Amino acid sequence: MKKLLISTAILTGSLAAFGQVSTGNFTGNIESTFQYLNEDSIIGATQPAQKGLLNSYMNVFYTQGNFRAGMRFESYLPRIQGYPSTFDGTGLGMRYVGYANDFVDVTVGSIYEQFGSGLALRAYEDRALGYDNMLDGMRLILRPYKGITIKGVYGYQRYAFLEGRIVHSDGIVRGFDGEMHLNETFKKLTDKKLDITLGGSFVSKYQQDDNEDLILPENVGTYGGRAKLRYGKFTLDGEYMYKGQDPSQDNGYNYNPGHAAVFNFGYTQKGLGILLSAKSVDNMSYRSDRTKQLQNVLINYLPSLNKTHTYNLVASLYPYATQPVGEIAYQAEVLYTFKKGSKIGGKYGTSINANFSTAYRPMRHTAGIDPLDSTGVTYTSGLFDMSDSLYWRDINFNITKKFSRNFNMILSYYNITLNNDVATVTKEKGFIKSNIVVVELGYKFKNHQSIRAEFQTLFVNRRDSLGNETHSFKGTPVDKGDWATVVLEYTISSNLFVSVMDQYNFGNPHVDHRAHHPYLSVGYIHDATRLTVSYGRQRAGLFCVGGVCRPVPASNGLTISFTQSF
Amino acid sequence: MKKVILLFLGFTFALSSMAQETTTETHSEGVKQLPSVKLKDMEGNDVNTAELGFEGPVVISFWATWCAPCKRELNAIHELYPDWQEETGVNLVAVSIDDQKTMNSVAVYANGKAWEYLVLMDTNGDFKRAMGVNNVPHTFLIDKDGNIVYSHNNYAAGDEEKLYEEILKISTKK
Q1: Nearest CB to A29; choose among B36, B102, B132
Q2: Residue A122: its chain B contacts at CB < 8 A?
Q3: Fewer CB within 10 Å of terminal CB in chain B, N or C?
Q4: Residue A132 main-chain phi, psi, to 5 deg
């Protein structure tokens, strides 16, 4: 390890000398977030013992001809509230060197990579989320012929960052992937209207069997294929992955195989987009350490099949996180823009968007299966074999309309049902159903200043005194009840903005908890520098990216965030 | 700790000599070249970010289908785009950082809104990392030689006018 680092240092040092002859390129970014938090018993916010919290990191990337290198220093002194406890201390969290030409691309060190749609392997990071499962090892990419890409990766996953050092996962990950774009590879197909890409992956993990009671498979493989077809305005793509026996904490140490399949069908033309998606997943949590849970050391990525919402009340109160143990999900999305000059389109065109998504528990057949026999198989389940147990349903619409050069509006409606016993976000039992309306208005003044306002309101379902669902408003609202949010954002210049937000929990069944959550932010932006200072109350919620969520506790205090790109 | 210092020294040494190099050669600080990353467009064709093949200025805008200000920015520019292209020869490349969860909605949105941009898919964030992008929207302006001459990490209504002023400065089309 030490030798590797020293040689990297020498290499970069010698590059510096090299740099004086021909120009290389440095890019990178810095992000720093500071919090000073107060105690606030009304919303359940606590003050950390240190009072002040600080997250920082800086990426530096260097490219010079075919050569590249990169590194990231990270610092958690200590981590900001809600950030995973696997981030602690200051040190080097990522570093790599690499070489690439048209034929070969090799990287040694920290690797981020995705095979196909990620069902078998995806090493990625999301700093805002506190997610980093990069592979420490080596990656080789070959492009032997037009349209053909072959990838191989080998490495240990990053599990945690403790006392400023990377802590690796217990198991090693190996993967190979090949992809061929037929229309590039075969001359005959170059000008054909039908465009075909085919691919396949094989991923394997090794972890020692350290369990005294069970005979565990030490090598677990996942493999499958994918295809992407395009014909004019139509696209169809699909990927299927099969996983061998992988007893783990997640699946209760059963010896079932797993599968994941995703299919998408799309039609797009100017002014119209349609997407239909389907997903079937069973027993597909795939980690390089079978004892880990939550978001730790996942080798694959199972995206949740639903729209990523942006308005505060829609995005962070009752979101859906993907269920790696199993789900059957469907989604439909349509976006249509009425042409400028038409009756509905008006002078600027009007867009309407409709989206529907739902997820169900897979059917698990247990007839004729003895869960205690020596096979360890506890049920059987098939592709798209769906039960009637609902996990999630989301129906939403929005209309975007520009009335004049200066004035526009977006009107949105959401109807969301969440099975909180499965995709748990709060302590509430059963289904949480919410109806949300959002009106967003934007107005641009003549002096380049502008104002934007959001009015959001959320109503949850009611239960009567017996706990049965009722449509009467006299019933007791579930969970924290109804909310209203107002956001006002005033842009003074392209460099400066002020925003005020208040989230009011006016319908909380506990009258004492009907609190306002005012939050003031001032932002200063100068080119690639951004400084935001915020003060106020924030309610507890979930922060989600790509179906991966982290709970953020309620807080009251000051947050300063600084970002810089270079 | 020793090795970290050593490594850091290596990089700072490299950085300082680089900085000198840039200033002496181009007489302007902070000018940097577009990194080369292989991405796919909406049709699945490979595109090298360092060889986009446009002649005039290029605007690179990082966005996502779940990012409201990004969509506001690209929709605002969409209305002005025919005039911009005619007057300056500018091309806009909309780099989507949507991951697997939402990447299939990219074509639905871009075509549903009738955008004329080149849309690239940065599904695993490789180009985003190489460009040092912290959060979206982040917009870069590239001159005809591939140098990044302006960037802005925000969008508020009217920012497209400031961007256009910057495009006019480097446009050679009269």
Answers
A1: B132
A2: 100, 124
A3: C
A4: -155, 105
Tell me how long chain B is.
174
Any idea which residue has 């006392």 for tokens? A163
Phi-psi region of A120 (alpha: psi -120 to 50; beta: other; left: phi over 0): alpha
pLDDT band at A19 (very low <50, low <70, confident <90, very high): very low
Radius of gyration, alpha carbons of chain A: 26
User: Which residue of chain B comes nearest to A304, CA vs CA?
Assistant: B101
pTM of the model: 0.87
| A539: three-class secondary structure by DSSP | coil
What does chain A come to in residues?
566
Beta strands in A494-554 (DSSP E): 496-504, 516-526, 529-538, 541-545, 548-552
Spatial distance between the Cα atoms of B162 and B160, rounded to a whole number of angstroms = 5
Element (H, E) at B85: helix B68-88
Distance from C-alpha of A354 to C-alpha of B172, rounded to nearest angstrom = 43
Q: Hey, what are B9's tokens? A: 């020294």
DSSP-assigned letter for residue A22: S
- What does A96-114 look like in DSSP terms, one character per residue? EEEEE-SSEEEEEEEE-EE
For the sheet containing B118-121, what is the strand order?
B32-33, B147-152, B138-142, B58-63, B91-96, B118-121, B38-41, B46-48
Q: How many CB atoms lie within 10 A of CB A144?
A: 9
Distance CA(A261)–CA(A282), nearest Å, equals 9
A151 vs A137: CA distance, rounded Å: 14
Could you tell me the maximum CA-CA distance found in chain B, to the nearest angstrom?
Answer: 57
Model pLDDT for residues B23-64, shown as the tens digit of each residue: 333 334 456 778 888 899 988 888 999 889 898 999 999 999
Q: pLDDT for B108-142, tens place per residue? A: 999 999 999 999 999 888 899 889 888 889 999 99
Beta bridge partners of A353: A335, A398
Q: Contact B84/B59 with Cβ under 8 angstroms?
A: no
The reply to whether residue B100 touches residue A546, judged by beta carbons under 8 angstroms, is: yes
Alpha-carbon gap, residue A242 to A200, rounded angstroms: 12
CA distance A123 to A141: 15
- Mutate: best of A25, A57, A63, A263, partner B, most B CBs <10 A: A25
The encoded tokens of residue A183 equal 């229309």
Cα distances from A3 to residues A342, B6, B9, B118, in angstroms, run: 69, 12, 16, 45
CA distance linking residue A476 with residue A112, whole number of Å: 48
CA closest to A228 among chain B residues: B44
pLDDT tens per residue across span A440-482: 999 999 888 999 999 999 999 999 988 888 888 889 999 999 9
* A303/B132 touch (CB, cutoff 8 Å), yes or no: no
Name the burial class of residue A349, with classes exposed (0-12), middle (13-18) and buried (19+) by CB atoms within 10 angstroms of its CB.
Answer: buried
The interaxial angle of helices B68-88 and B159-170, nearest 10 deg, is 30
ipTM value for the complex: 0.80
B43 chain-A contacts, CB cut-off 8 A: 195, 230
What are A277's two structure tokens?
């998606």
Residues A132/A111, Cβ–Cβ less than 8 Å:
no
C-alpha pair distances (Å), A503 with each of A43, A232, A516, A535:
12, 47, 6, 14
Which residue among B111, B125, B153 sits closest to A565, beta carbon to beta carbon? B153
B6, containing H or E segment: helix B2-26
Nearest Cα residue in chain A from B105: A275
Q: How far apart are CA A344 and CA A358, in angstroms?
A: 30
Find the radius of gyration of the CA atoms of chain B: 17
- Nearest chain A alpha carbon to B155: A494
Measure CA A547 to chain center: 5
A370-402 pLDDT per residue, tens: 878 888 899 999 999 999 999 999 999 999 999
Measuring CA to CA, which residue among A529, A518, A537 is closest to residue A496? A529
- Helices A2-19 and B2-26: crossing angle, nearest 10°? 10
